[in-house]
## 1
Amino acid sequence: MIAIPPDKREQRHLLDALTAALGQMPDPFAARWAGQLEENLSAFFLDAHALAVSSGTAALHTALACAGIGPGDEVLLPALTVVMSAAPILIAGARPVFVDSNPHTLDIDYQDAARRLTERTRAIMPVHLWGRMGDPAVLRDFAERHGLIVIEDACQAIGSSRDDIAAGTIGDYGAFSTKDGKILWSGEGGFLLTRDERHAELARAYRTHWQTPPAGQAPLSRAAANYRLAEPLAAIAALNAIHLPYLLVRRKAQTRRLLDRLAGLPGLTVLEPHPSERWNHYAPLLRIDLLEARRLCERLAELHVPNSVGTFKLVSCDTRPAFAQPDRAPCPGAAQVIDTILAPILTDRDDEDSIDAHALVIEKQVTAWTQ
């Protein structure tokens, strides 16, 4: 049984950072900790530009705005996602066009994506749900052939990579969240990643009302947003970013411990990543080969085993009322994945006892479900 490494981070350092951040308030120009966070993330991602923002949603919206996506435009994205991926597209004034997924690989169904292209399609937004990545080469080839901007929703995928390409670095922009529950957490927050200096300049300007514009432009010459990350939250994120390699090791141990406890249990099949993928183990994934799989997930949630379907009512995003489009073909592959998936939710706080307790509940319920 895999042991979870003890938490060696010194909480005193976090408290000191919070005290320092609070001590400099109120200061409308404070950005010490946000700047430190960006330096730490830039180092982790091998000198990519990292820009701290107030949430993963803010990161996605900033990317769309800086890419010039707006009214009349369409953005392809998988129906195998959460509303937080699609909402920024609507906020930008564009239209989300949902694409099916391959139920065996969880990757975008690119044949379906090609069928949904129109003259208004401007971008594609892959979503690395549960930290899982699709094939970067196929994504890049599809985007290049059709002249599409690539904006990655990597909010759950920090630390994942495939073919040595890190999540969030495949395309033009990568968006991340640091909300509680993410591997790198700060309560709320997020960041945008890009390797293009011009993209970074635009994003820096956009997140703060265009007060610090790109070279050659006047301050406040464009309407933009307030997506700055508050300094106390930036302090938490900056300290956790220093320990990100440890946090990734810890999440891997947490996930592997739960999967090991459930290995061989009739009715559940572990969904392992692609051989070339270095998965961050964001959430254990198991295929449910039982009747009424969604009801099983709901029952587990009632018994305090949080999971994507039972707790957060995950469904294929194209069926949500806010995004339903009667003139579009459904996405059965995405629905098949969601309706047969058990994805327990883990956080940094889960220890061996809590994970073993979750495993015991799952084992008892699955065993009873098969009888």
Note: Residues 65 and 92 are 7 Å apart (CA to CA).
## 2
Amino acid sequence: MTTTTRADPNTGSPIANSLTAGRLPTSAPWTILGAAIAIAAAVFGVVAIGSGEGFNWGGALLVGALLYIPSIWLFSTLVEGERRAMDRLVTALVSGAFLLAMIPLISLTITVVTFGLSRFDPEFFSFSMRNVTGEGGGALHAIIGTLLMTGAAAIISIPIGLMTSIYLVEYGRGRLAQGITFLVDVMTGIPSIVAGLFAYALFAIFLGPGVRLGIAGAVALAVLMIPVVVRSSEEMLRLVPNELREAAFALGVPKWLTIVKVVLPTSIAGITTGIMLSIARVIGETAPLLIAAGFTASMNYSLFEGRMQSLPVFVYTQYANQGNPPEAYIDRAWAAALTLILIVMALNLIARLVARFFAPKFGR
């Protein structure tokens, strides 16, 4: 086996390929990163000694990361050539952007867990705030209200959103489909408080002004969920290959049965993920529930009778209406925020299990 080397037509000398001319050692990026952080740490150390203030670890790491990006590009250009240097530069930029995006998420998680665990006790999950003005009490009424209103909103919005997406993908043609698509796009961008005002006005027409009901909060959340369900389900249905539909039609299967037995099972994983995203989108809403469902310190298991508390509104009221001692109210707010995060996490895990067990490939 022989290797042919291309030559420059003008000079006759072989053309050096930057992809094979040289390679940095495997440990070189980490070495350069460590050196960049060390240089930044030394500079910040000198500044800290001169100013008499504490050492800024966050600033040293950030400056070190910024110094690493041009350094890895320079060393790669000298050793490996411009093409591989550009690849390393883009890799460094993408990795840096990812780490930068993870910093708020990790910081938020650590903060909520740190402050929320102080009231993560049996009393918090077994008592309401009825007749509690200081320490003690719990958020059972808010947890029940969140689950009831979010569940009712899901029952309302998922069938409507899924059938709308099926119509747009499988049946919709002409101006009607275009009009529905336009309205869905408009609904996607409406502020959440507008949904709360809509639900409040709707029930005020029939039940009178000043009414606050759990079902009104569920309707407000459903208004926010429907466009998300429609958009995500529509995209998943469009990813189903047309060959599967044509194969079913060739066997004489009606269109509605093809959708039920072929199209929906094929896209069930993506549809489930989209539904969970819509639930996660609305489960933390405060403004629409504050307007439509109100808030209360007592238990309420009925969506159609009286005000109903939710975890986001509970966090808001505990923080905004602090009593004596204020630390008790702050601790309850942090614990409720941690509970809300855990509920969203549990819903996402359930969605993954549903997508796994109901996907066609699992049953093969």
Note: Confidence is low (pLDDT under 50) at residues 1-5.
